[in-house]
């Protein structure tokens, strides 16, 4: 067998990728090689400002010293042990989450999709345990995104993700309501509903924050009917909005909540956080995973949470996020025929464009300027950079978009 060969350039690596790598992702023509903070370098040693952040994963930025240290410690002690046994990093992560939230228990998973799958299973078992086996339906929101397993893809309120032409038959038990529309939710309610699932801020759906009225209204509905309120904070949790959980900005407490993305600073990990009776629902034998809650992922999650909670990163997300939105609004005002609205909370922000064709063009124009951003929901530029981003780095992004819009306008 040939020895592992290090690729010397983007072109060489991409040629090999085209030959060997499954083509289920559309990728930019860049091969990531290394990173530091909000900056990355490719194999051609070209430097980019990264405001995609691994799709909200790199919360501490690339190669944060706390993560480098935690990774080295895990490599020299233990990477994995079975859930037949306890491990200290897992206990530390649970303790930090519970002590900084409304939750009482934490159940680990390997990804956001798995965490949301766990919430769905928990909700159905909760209904059975409380004498309502007829309740199995989960109401989720249009334009939501909850994962790509069959259940979470079906829960996702986007036809392209749960397209029955591709994946039929889809699992039963899901209905959809309009985000930020309580009357739409009420129209879907009946005696078969066991839970309501929503993101406090829709990410893939176009960076759309929930209203206070909407989240409080969902809490009231669930309390009145004895069903669970479940939040998906895979993308917007772990400090991104200036709080450990996005719902803490609203003062509305769910029964369960999913985490993932930035929780492990690049190592796959997910979690279901629960309180009250929901925290006692999944007993031994009802749910689990070989890798979930292992020492490696939890060791990095513990370092991530410790850094976020104690080194001012969430305060930075609020401060820099406010500056970023203000500068984006100034830029939008200069291009009223192309860009029309700025939305966001903390360090998840977006610019809604007037049509679906210009977004990818702006992404490409920014790429030419060594700035990485992406477009979601067809016409929304989305920014989910590391929480260590500075105001100066935000200004670089705004300038790149401004230049792109000016060139496209010409």
Kindly summarize this structure in a few lines.
This protein has 410 residues and is an alpha/beta fold.
Number of helices: 13
CA-based gyration radius: 21 Å
Order of helices and strands: HEEEHHHEHEHHEHEEEHEEEHHEEHEEEH
Distance between the termini: 55 Å
Low-confidence sequence ranges = none
Largest sheet: 7 strands, mixed
Instruction: Please tell me what the overall shape is.
Output: globular
Lateral arrangement of strands in the main beta sheet: 4-12-11-10-7-5-6
Indicate the mean pLDDT: 96
* Helix/strand/pairing category: alpha/beta
Beta content comes to 15-25%
Written description of the protein model:
38% of the residues lie in helices and 18% in strands. The protein contains 13 helices and 17 strands. It has helices spanning 10-20, 53-56, 65-77, 88-99, 112-129, 150-155, 164-167, 182-187, 212-225, 295-310, 313-334, 358-368, 391-409; strands at 32-36, 39-42, 47-50, 105-109, 137-141, 174-177, 193-198, 201-202, 208-209, 228-232, 256-259, 270-274, 339-345, 348-353, 371-372, 374-376, 380-383. The chain has a 7-stranded mixed β-sheet, with helices on both faces. A 4-stranded mixed β-sheet has the order 1-2-3-15. α12 crosses α13. The protein is globular. The N and C termini lie far apart (55 Å). The relative contact order is 0.15.
